[in-house]
Specification:
The chain is built from ten helices and 25 strands. The chain is an alpha+beta fold. The strands form six sheets. Strands 3, 4, 5, 6, 7, 8, 9, 10, 11 and 14 form a ten-stranded antiparallel sheet that branches. A seven-stranded mixed sheet has the order 16-17-21-20-22-19-25. A hairpin with a 5-residue loop joins strand 12 and strand 13.
Length: about 475
């Protein structure tokens, strides 16, 4: 089947939701059942003493599906001052030290279009040492990621506004404070302006995400259930990659350039000239990083084609090891879906500091899967997030190289020149009005399509290197 026909809908619509049932039937009959990692119950050290702060009332726990590791707790913030502005306290937070484990934190609120103008800080207690960290800033994010306005994913009632997620490592205590812009600073100074305006968004909640325990080396993963929605969703996610890989693999292996060109000819049909495409890189699949497929919305949504790649950083901090990257991704996935209300993780791919590439949003790594990464420019593009924060920290050479290799291959499937420019039509945002045709680099940073700091000053400065490297990998 031709690549273009395979990657788009039969009616040529810009995007289409595809049921997960039909795509899995043949694969389910031909291949063994899919297995996912088993949950492990980590030990709960006793809570260390810490200064008393207002504590949130107990909130219902959202338990994971049976046999799948990980969980999310959502806790309402409480006022930290008597002053109220339009019914919202200008300083809110909570302190909690009940020993429940988590590794990633974030703050969400009711209205996805509302912005948090202020400062969010958190400190956490290590579950391993019992010591409290120093205060860390959480990036306020302010709606720069997400599905395009007017789409079903964006308009879903469950969608919320949110800060960026912050990876804090295995923790069992948290101390959070959120303060609106202006007013008295925490250090006793005075911020400008002196009155908090606008107020904090309504419905502020702290999200504590536990990615689940890693399987011990040599342990066989738990077998997935033979029936039910979770089994169907897991099979569908793996079946979406069977155009280029065996069903249920943990990773899609790298190919040399000639083998990649032969694969493209198989997918697209005979080509008249030698194609410009980079060698296919190794990609860890969703099964490989332990995605709980029951969390996401069923089915897949595709865009018409791929004309550009937007590079992001996750803004989740750099205090992770490469062996922890799957846990970080599982946490971000849970945060995007369970906390923010998206249909799946927003990025099409993620890259860790060691240069490992991971499959993001489900639907097939070779296909034009519609993501939720660059508000206003998700159509006809893909989003690649480097795990970490790169405003002041320099991204690793391995990560930049991996981004270039991934783009050289993926955009090569669609004939895009990484050094070139292309036109995308804005779906609406804070830089370009809906319907405006915008000329952008084929490899752009998030900030090129939306007024944001993402992907950070230091990573954005490496995009020129990524463009030239990707073009070289394609043989241009």
């Amino acid at each position: 089947m031709a690549m273009r026909g395979f990657l788009t809908s039969s009616n040529g619509a810009p995007s289409i939701a595809v049921s997960s049932i039909g795509v899995t039937c043949a694969a389910a009959l031909a291949f063994p059942l899919l297995a996912l990692p088993a949950a492990a119950a980590p030990a709960r050290p006793s809570a260390a003493a810490a200064p008393a702060r207002p504590s949130a009332a107990a909130a219902p726990v959202r338990p994971p599906a049976a046999g799948v590791p990980g969980s999310t707790r959502s806790l309402p913030l409480v006022p930290l001052s008597r002053e109220r502005v339009l019914g919202t306290a200008p300083e809110q937070g909570l302190y909690r030290s009940d020993g429940e484990h988590f590794s990633l934190v974030g703050v969400v609120w009711d209205d996805p279009d509302a912005e948090l103008h202020g400062r969010v800080q958190v400190r956490t207690r290590s579950a391993r040492t019992g010591k409290w960290s120093g205060w860390q800033d959480v990036e306020t994010h302010n709606a720069d990621h997400g599905a395009d306005p007017g789409t079903a994913e964006r308009d879903a009632r469950r969608v919320r506004g949110a800060t960026a997620p912050l990876w804090v490592g295995e923790s069992d205590g948290v101390d959070l404070r959120v303060r609106a812009a202006g007013g008295e600073a925490w250090d006793g100074g005075t911020a400008e302006p002196q009155r908090p305006e606008p107020p904090l968004p309504s419905g502020l909640r702290l999200e504590l995400v536990d990615p689940g325990a890693e399987a011990a080396p040599g342990d066989a993963p738990a077998q997935a259930p033979r029936t039910g929605p979770r089994s169907e969703a897991a099979r569908a996610a793996s079946a979406a990659n069977t155009d280029i890989a065996r069903f249920g693999v943990l990773e899609i292996p790298a190919l040399g350039k000639r083998a990649t060109e032969r694969e493209l000819a198989r997918l697209e049909g005979p080509v008249r000239a030698r194609p410009y495409i980079g060698p296919r890189p190794r990609i860890v699949t969703r099964r490989g990083w332990g995605a709980d497929e029951s969390l996401r919305q069923s089915g897949f949504v595709y865009t018409k084609k791929l004309k550009a790649a937007f590079v992001h950083h996750t803004a989740s901090g750099n205090k992770y090891s490469c062996s922890q990257a799957p846990s970080v991704i599982r946490s971000i996935y849970r945060y995007h879906v369970a906390s923010m209300g998206w249909r799946d993780i927003g990025y099409n791919f993620l890259v860790d500091k060691c240069g490992t590439i991971y499959e993001g949003r489900a639907g097939g790594v070779a296909k034009a899967v519609l993501g939720a990464h660059t508000l206003g420019f998700n159509n006809n593009s893909m989003g690649i997030a480097v795990i970490g924060s790169y405003g002041t920290a320099k991204p690793s050479g391995a990560a930049v190289t991996a981004v270039a290799r991934l783009i050289a291959w993926k955009l090569g499937l669609y004939g895009a020149d990484p050094r070139g420019r292309t036109y995308l039509t804005s779906g609406g945002g804070n830089l370009y009005a809906k319907g405006k045709k915008v000329r952008l680099h084929v490899i752009s940073g998030h900030r090129d399509g939306f007024a944001t700091e993402c992907p950070g000053k230091r990573l954005y400065a490496k995009l020129g290197t990524a463009r030239s490297s990707a073009a070289r990998y394609q043989g241009r």
